[in-house]
Amino acid sequence: MVSSFAELGLSEPTLKAVTELGYEEPTPIQAQTIQLMLEGVDVIAQAQTGTGKTAAFALPIIEKLDPKVRATQALVLTPTRELAVQVAEAFQSYSKYHRVSVLPVYGGQPIERQLRALERGVQVVVGTPGRILDHIRRKTLQLAPVRTVILDEADEMLNMGFIEDIETILKETSETRQTALFSATMPAPIAALARRYMHDAKRITVAAEQKTVSQIRQIYYEVGKRDKLEVLTRILDYETPTAAIVFCRTKLEVDSLGQRLTARAFAAETLHGDLNQVQRDRVMARFRSGQMELLIATDVAARGLDVEHVSHVINYDLPLELESYVHRIGRTGRAGRSGTAISLVTPRERRLWDAIQRTTSGSIQRMRLPTIGDVITRRRERFKETLRETIAEQGLEPYVIMAEELGEEYSPTDLAAAAFKLLLGAAPDETEDKLAEPDEPEKSGAKRPPKRRKDDNRMGPEHGMTRLYIDVGREEGVRPGDIVGAIANEADIPGRSIGSIEIYDHFSLVDVPSNQAQQVINALKATRIRNHKITVTLAKAEKGQNRKKR
Ligand code: AMP
To answer: How far is the CA of 251 from the centre of ligand 1 (A)?
Structure first.
């Protein structure tokens, strides 16, 4: 397989942008996709978010754009506005040394702003199917000049009820276009779509073999992207690794994490492709001898690294290649020792994480983040252990005299407590715990209302949910996917937070999180479902009468 970006046939400006982002080598999906896309071949790629799929399609698109043409040359369809923005930002960073105009187009943003930009001419449009269709109908977006269409997270678009919109959009584009489809799974309707609208498509999968890692304790934490550093330092405080390798995706992230950990008084050093052999050897010698506890590294830099006493491997960033997970964690638990592998998983990486979990035969346990209180308790337990060992080792004579002298003034308990205070430092303030998870069921033992089946809608919405009334239903052709799609897309609420949906002859009921109900009502004001203008209100109990269910 191709092992460097330079071998992929990318131009200097693109290589420069990628290098500056700290990417050391193409991920498998990039190595397999980029050349094909440069050649103009249709591609069906089975890959999760987090495997580098955005660059896999964005880099060839940027390479192939005609800079002199202002018209829209590439169209990327995404399931959510969040992803549309993310992809548009990625295009911007990858095209740092090209002049490329990119516009994210999604519901919920004032359409006027999009209209002005589209009028000026946009070379790459990234958007959700509903809003793209809207622009096509208004004739504010011409798709005839589009040469490449990307269907990103196609299975998610299917789940959200966008499949017909996608077909309508594809029909608006030229027959000679190049189409690439990216999807974590390949459900039948997606495969059928590919058959109908793609030509001689090459299939690419990034699957991984299963490996056994029985002697390693594997755990993971679900964390918000912004909390990652705080979570990592909390875990380090709790686990107190003797020697840990912390993996990041890029050189830049390695450097930045190294600096931030050093600033927090961790003995951390970094290892990545920019170090020469002498520097690398020095870092490794310090790590081997125990002079530092944390080695922050990229996959490439850690390749071939063999250190016996690594107590922890921490996936600060999940690996971009499924196989890498097993390779990474195999750096601990060497020579029959026990080891711990810890992964931080952000919400967007859920599916990638599911795929990674399937590559290992061992079970990976989700853990609740330790609280400050847990860290203190753990530290005190360790301290007591060390005290016992010190007493057992003897050699306390010089200190015994000091203890006896002070023992005439104070009680032994007060004396010991004062010494512990000095040694352990002031206890951190537990009320300042920014990462506390108060409603974690395992910990609080709080009684939750009994879980109801998703389709059991008779008793009113679940705790914390509010029921909304939408004045279109079965007779208007509405299906659950349409409602999920509209809410997710227009109000930017993930599909999984939407509760039960019931569709009646001329209206529908949907449960949404109470704190977002007003947001949904506002966002859906100017929206159409199945081309019907809709009105959304809070559902009243009496609206439930005379229901005639499908
Ligand atoms: P994606 O799957 O496109 O969402 O990418 C996941 C993450 O990996 C993003 O943060 C990218 O910036 C990063 N990334 C993509 N390609 C590479 C690469 N070749 N090396 C290192 N990081 C990468």
So the answer is: 12
**pLDDT at 215 (0 to 100):** 73
pLDDT in tens, 342-380: 999 999 899 999 999 988 877 899 999 998 888 888 888
pLDDT grade for 414, boundaries at 50, 70 and 90: very high
Kindly indicate the confidence band of residue 51, based on its pLDDT and cuts at 50, 70 and 90: confident
Ligand 1 site residues, Cβ closer than 6 angstroms: 23, 26-27, 30, 49-55, 249-250, 320
The confidence band for 427, taking pLDDT boundaries of 50, 70 and 90, is low
Q: How far is the CA of 412 from the centre of ligand 1 (A)?
A: 59
What tens digit of pLDDT does each residue of 314-325 get? Answer: 999 999 888 889
Ligand 1 centre to CA of 30 (Å) is 10
Closest residue to atom 5 of ligand 1, CA basis: 52
d(CA 204, CA 45): 5
Q: What is the DSSP pairing of strand 508-513 with strand 501-503?
A: antiparallel
Nearest Cα to Cα of residue 297 among 235, 357, 243, 355: 243
Q: Quick one: 389 exposed, middle or buried, by C-beta within 10 A (0-12, 13-18, 19+)? A: exposed
**Which mutation among 2, 10, 23 tests ligand 1's pocket best, with the greatest number of atoms within 8 A of CB?**
23
Q: How far apart are alpha carbons 483 and 489 in whole angstroms?
A: 10
Residue whose Cα lies nearest atom 14 of ligand 1: it is 52
Angle of helix 163-172 relative to helix 188-197, nearest 10 degrees, comes to: 10
Q: Give me the mean pLDDT over the 24-40 stretch.
A: 94
Helix or strand or coil: residue 270? Answer: strand
Q: Which atom of ligand 1 is nearest to the CA of 250?
A: 21
- Residue 364, beta-bridge partner list: 218
